[in-house]
Write a structure and sequence with these properties.
456 residues, alpha/beta, 40% helix, Aspartate Aminotransferase, domain 1, binds ligand F0G, five-stranded mixed sheet, 13% strand, 16 strands, three-stranded antiparallel sheet, Aspartate Aminotransferase, domain 2
Length: 456
């Protein structure tokens, strides 16, 4: 295999402050064992998220200088619309300040009590924005998606039979939209195949239900299709993405991921009857429709970033960098979710710390121990983020207990990742000493961001 090297040179650097184990113990205690409460200056390698954390290119910084900050009709808006329009084929595009702003607007219009919104898997902010309206956010992943060791190449697929069963059971009137999350962040960052997207669209069309995409990692999904789905090896990732969008009636995207930008996103639709209502809410909550809560310079950064995110050299490195990280972890015995997807490697916390019950947050135990041991910040995607309370306050665990090691785009080098592998291997060797946590306070939704915990 050819040597995998970063397809960029480093022009600007940001120093990393080293901390001691004793310091980190005290900092974590002060943060109430919630790594969202840490200062980033106290983190050595930050794998909390791949969202908004990309290193921008020299071309993006240069484009920002051309930002037109006019309140209405800026040329940056038109450059943005041109790029997003060429990629998605959508006629009506609205910039927003980030993905959840698009979710807020869309589900305010389409959600409501009694409605059900199925998906391969909803992201946590999507679920919260749907549930806020009184609607139900329903995950219909294929069965393989819940088998950590299965090597199924498209675990992001939606279970078509279950979708059809749902529509037959509750009736199409209760399903205002079906949402495809590409890639399926919360179950492992797995891609969906074009065959599955087409099959889902076919069923939905029969019942007149629109298909929307949560497209924040669409470039990574498209590249996985190129590598894994027969018939796509000679197509560019951009062309594959265009084909995916051609099956959708609308989409939203957090440009903080595959937009290679630090902020921003958009909502886009084909249906003209939605346009006026979206515009009204956009003006109320985000800003005038030609800037949607963003500066002109942000629109420029996204327009340029989208082109860069679809470059083959970039995507080749991105997907193989993540796969190589996964392979090194596999060799140490650390149980991971197979196969690795686009933006992260997920540790199977249920197998890493089987002695910790779901209600005591095995993933959070690993996250906290990893920070103390090595200063690496990961994020729990399990009972803390996705767990629920039953009618009598008992804990309802999600299907998987995971720890996500998200890889910011173009930020860390191979040796940074080697350091993380070594740290995790050491932690795994002493895994029997990991302790669980008790939740002392929690918000009514998206509780993981602000939760206060205490070690058992
Ligand atoms: N959809 C998916 C699949 C996401 O992963 C995210 C954000 C959003 C929507 C919301 O976008 O943050 O711009 O409002 N995911 C981040 C993460 C936060 O860490 O995975 P946003």
């Amino acid at each position: 295999m050819p040597v995998l090297f970063e397809p960029f040179r480093i022009k600007v650097v940001e120093p990393i402050r080293l901390t001691t184990r004793a310091e980190r113990e005290s900092l974590l205690q002060q943060a109430h064992y919630n790594v969202f409460r840490l200062r980033s200056a106290d983190v050595l390698i930050d794998l909390l998220t791949d969202s908004g954390t990309a290193a921008m290119s020299d071309r993006q910084w240069a484009a920002m200088f051309h930002g037109d900050e006019a309140y209405a009709g800026s040329h940056s808006y038109y450059r943005f619309i041109e790029t997003v329009g060429a990629l998605t084929g959508m006629p009506y595009i609205f910039p927003v300040h980030q993905g959840r702003a698009a979710e807020h607007i869309l589900f305010h219009l389409l959600g409501g009590p009694g409605k059900i919104i199925p998906s391969n898997t909803h992201f946590d902010t999507t679920r919260a924005n749907i549930e806020q309206t009184g609607a139900e956010a329903l995950d219909l992943p294929i069965a393989e998606a819940l088998l950590p060791e299965s090597q199924c190449p498209f675990k992001g697929n939606l279970d078509v039979a279950k979708l059809e069963e749902l529509i037959e059971k509750v009736g199409a009137d209760r399903i205002p939209v079906c949402l495809f999350t590409l890639t399926n962040n919360t179950l492992g960052g797995h891609p969906a195949s074009l065959a599955n997207i087409r099959a889902v669209k076919k069923v939905l069309s029969r019942y007149g239900i629109p298909l929307f995409l949560d497209a924040c990692r669409i470039a990574e999904n498209a590249y996985c299709i190129k590598l894994r789905e027969p018939g796509y090896v000679n197509r560019t990732p951009w062309e594959i993405a265009q084909e995916i969008f051609s099956h959708a009636d609308g989409c939203f995207m957090s440009a903080k991921k595959d937009g290679l930008a630090n902020i921003g996103g958009f909502l886009a639709v084909r249906d003209v009857t939605l346009v006026e209502r979206i515009q009204h809410l956009l003006i109320l909550w985000e800003g005038f429709p030609t800037y949607g809560g963003l500066a002109g310079r942000d629109l420029e950064a996204i327009a340029q970033g989208l082109h860069e995110a679809f470059q083959e050299e970039y995507l080749h490195h991105r997907i193989h960098f993540v796969a190589h990280f996964a392979e090194q972890l596999r060799r140490t015995g650390v149980p991971i979710i197979e196969p690795p997807g686009g933006h992260a490697v997920f540790i199977d916390a249920a197998r890493f710390a089987p002695h910790i019950a779901p209600e005591h947050f095995p993933g959070q135990a690993i996250v906290c121990a990893l920070y103390v041991h090595a200063g690496v910040r990961a994020v729990e995607v399990g009972s803390l983020m996705m767990g629920k309370r039953g009618a009598n306050g008992d804990h309802i665990a999600p299907p998987l207990e995971l720890v996500r090691l998200a890889i910011p785009r173009r930020v860390y080098t191979q040796s940074h990742m080697d350091y993380v592998v070594e740290a995790l291997a050491e932690l795994y060797a002493t895994r029997d000493s990991l302790r669980g946590f008790r939740l002392l306070s929690e918000a009514p939704f998206l509780r993981h961001f602000t939760a206060v915990l205490e070690p058992l």
